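ok here's the first one, seq then struct tokens
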Amino acid sequence: IDTFSTETKSDTDEIDTTLEDLAKLDSIISDVEQVESDLAQAKEEIEDDVAKTHEEQMGRSTVNMALIVVVFILLMIVLVLMFQNRKLASEAPPPPEEEDDDMVILEDL
């Protein structure tokens, strides 16, 4: 009976140790699953932030391109007006100069 008791105690000790190890493994698996869940959530948030930032950047890029086009058009208008003004100035006859024979000299009072 003593040998049976000793063997049984040894077997139950091994079973207890195995159960404790399984409990630790279960805890570790639970922690790993929680980390996996947190990582998946963080990945989704980062992807959303990247998409939002990309959309904002595309909007800014579109606005910048529109401003560049407007400035370019205004520059072209200014250049056309300058050339037309020069052309009109070169084609216009010079204004007649009036010769003033009767010069009035003001004397000091």
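and now the second one, same deal
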Amino acid sequence: MEEAAYCIGGLLLFILPNYEQQLLSIILRL
């Protein structure tokens, strides 16, 4: 179970920065 939690945490750390960049680009276009 702990390994799965680490895996999910790593995915969030990888996805969130890219997600924030996409949101910023969308906001700047508006």
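notes on #2: The chain has a mean pLDDT of 85. The chain has one domain: 1-30.
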